[in-house]
């Protein structure tokens, strides 16, 4: 429950002739883990009944809960309009209770190692929907840390994330114990550095010491390259005097060589950055680094006096670990969601005689056809997603000042909905589980698929550019709009 629901609460209170402080009372109860209005004993009974009838207690419905052997709990929620959202409670031996929260349903970025990027992107979550994930776990037990490392890219939904992070303090998670993690999406990151004065922590998903490799692993790097992103993190350090965590997922034979550790040590200033090496949680695309490789990598960072730790993996047996949140209701094979469905489908196709070419076997470590296609299409899809979000951001800012923009916003809403459908179609087609059915039998057919997807991406690009241009004109001459 946050500002949106508090606003709804205030309306109900106003209609009932109640004083405004009642909304604060209700929030205090919710933040301390109350499970219903009935528990709020300093609120008059008749009012509690009315609230129960008129204001839903949570913006999210719980669909499924799982518990891992190590005590980690993962919950799958649904928003009112049916989007899946996952969040995780991690329990540590030292008593820490840390929440991993989602900022979006799905994610428009297409980092190749992350399961969330392989599901369809839904939408940004509201601050209420983010807080309601935390309140759900708060009703189970007291919590003291939170990381925005669940589904989604927080810097694409900065206002809601920061609103929620601020209110988390009432739930028991101080600003210093809240961490926002980003791929380095610069427009949001710049605003985070400039505008958020609270001591909320920053983490950067880096994963590669060079632009070349990073762009291969994370298409967003093509748009916002390493040097610019690191400069922004350094600015955060200079302004806030808080170190930036660097997340580095260890992919066997891809980014875990000793030379790469040296390059990383040369890239990062030990005064500004602390590295967290993350064992890869299987999502079907890569092999994880061996323990030995991780230790050797860490040795190089230690020798360079760059602070580094190896992240404790939690909740892997229920696919609740980093990068595994994909809201997939299907039963899981031990080595990951995508792989199991891929394998099933491949088997089915083999049985039905439509087997794939031998050369398109799914060797996930090398450049399989599948991998190559994902890499080829990733930037197109990511670019389109980013542009839609960027256009939305522009509209959102101007809305406050220009009445005329309402009309444009509605147009943009319809346009983005249509474009998102198109994009989802595109995305689904290149996702692992739908993939074998479209891996064509010959090169020409494959080129045709790639070509049509690239054209779709361009259409999205042009449409968003049109909208931007309209917005720009509306700013220059609002009267004409
Ligand atoms: N979009 C933001 C927030 C998500 S954080 C970001 O990327 O920073 C999720 C973290 O888990 C990121 O550091 C991400 O790179 C990492 N991750 C993704 N897939 C992973 C996987 N399969 N194994 C381990 N870590 C993974």
Give a description of the structure.
It is a single chain. The protein has 481 residues and is of the alpha/beta class. It is 48% helix and 13% strand. It is built from 16 helices and twelve strands. The strands form two sheets. Strands 1-2-3-4-7-8-9-10-11-12 form a ten-stranded mixed beta sheet. It has a two-stranded antiparallel sheet with strand order 5-6. A hairpin with a 5-residue loop joins strand 3 (84-91) and strand 4. The longest helix is centred in the C-terminal third of the chain and has 34 residues, at 443-476. The two termini are 37 Å apart. The relative contact order is 0.09. The model is unreliable at 329-367 and 428-441 (pLDDT under 50).
Topology:
Blueprint: H1 3-15, H2 21-31, H3 45-54, E1 60-67, E2 73-79, E3 84-91, E4 97-100, E5 104-105, E6 123-124, H4 127-138, E7 145-148, H5 158-171, E8 178-182, H6 186-195, E9 201-205, H7 211-217, H8 220-223, H9 226-240, E10 244-250, H10 258-267, E11 273-279, H11 291-303, E12 308-310, H12 337-351, H13 369-399, H14 405-430, H15 435-438, H16 443-476
Parallel strand pairs: 4-7, 7-8, 8-9, 9-10, 10-11, 11-12
Antiparallel strand pairs: 1-2, 2-3, 3-4, 5-6
Helix pairs in contact: 1-2, 4-5, 6-9, 10-11, 13-14, 13-16, 14-16
């Amino acid at each position: 429950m946050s500002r949106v629901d508090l606003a709804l609460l205030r309306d109900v209170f106003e209609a009932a002739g109640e004083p405004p402080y009642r909304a604060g009372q209700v929030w205090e109860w919710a933040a301390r883990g109350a499970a219903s209005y009935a528990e709020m004993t300093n609120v008059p009974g008749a009012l509690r009944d009315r609230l129960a009838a008129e204001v839903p207690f949570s913006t999210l419905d719980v669909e499924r809960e799982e518990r891992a052997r190590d005590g980690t709990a993962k919950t799958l929620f649904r928003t009112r309009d049916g989007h899946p959202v996952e969040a995780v409670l991690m329990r540590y031996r030292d008593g820490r209770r840390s929440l991993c929260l989602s900022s979006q349903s799905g994610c428009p970025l297409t980092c190749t190692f992350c399961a969330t990027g392989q599901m369809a992107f839904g939408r940004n979550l509201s601050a209420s929907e983010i807080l309601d994930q935390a309140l759900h776990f708060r009703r189970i037990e007291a919590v003291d840390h939170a990381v925005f490392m669940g589904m989604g890219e927080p810097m694409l939904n900065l206002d809601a994330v920061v609103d929620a992070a601020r209110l988390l303090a009432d739930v028991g998670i101080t600003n210093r114990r809240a961490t926002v993690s980003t791929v380095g999406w610069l427009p949001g990151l710049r605003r985070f550095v400039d505008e958020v004065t609270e001591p909320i922590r920053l983490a950067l998903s880096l994963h590669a010491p060079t632009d070349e490799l990073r762009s291969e692993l994370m298409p967003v790097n093509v748009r916002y390259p390493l040097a610019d992103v690191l400069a922004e993190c350094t600015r955060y350090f200079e302004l806030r005097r808080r170190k930036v965590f660097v997340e580095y997922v260890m992919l066997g034979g891809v980014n875990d060589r000793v030379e790469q550790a040296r390059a990383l040590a040369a890239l990062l200033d030990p005064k500004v950055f602390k590295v967290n090496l993350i064992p890869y949680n299987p999502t079907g695309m890569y092999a994880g680094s061996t323990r030995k490789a991780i230790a050797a990598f860490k040795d190089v960072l230690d020798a360079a006096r760059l602070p580094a730790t190896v992240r404790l993996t939690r909740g892997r047996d229920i696919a609740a670990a980093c990068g595994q949140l994909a809201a997939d209701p299907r039963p899981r094979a031990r080595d990951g969601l995508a792989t199991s469905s891929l394998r099933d489908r491949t088997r089915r196709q083999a049985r039905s005689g439509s087997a794939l070419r031998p050369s398109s076997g799914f060797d996930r470590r090398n450049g399989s056809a599948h991998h190559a296609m994902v890499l080829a299409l990733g930037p197109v899809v990511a670019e389109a997603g980013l542009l839609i979000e960027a256009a939305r951001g522009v509209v959102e800012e101007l809305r406050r000042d220009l009445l005329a923009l309402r009309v444009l916003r509605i147009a943009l809403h319809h346009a983005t909905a249509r474009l998102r459908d198109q994009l989802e179609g595109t995305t689904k087609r290149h996702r692992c589980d739908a993939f074998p059915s479209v891996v064509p039998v010959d090169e020409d057919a494959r080129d045709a698929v790639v070509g049509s997807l690239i054209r779709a991406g361009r259409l999205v690009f042009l449409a968003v550019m049109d909208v931007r241009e309209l917005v720009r004109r509306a700013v220059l001459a609002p009267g004409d709009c």
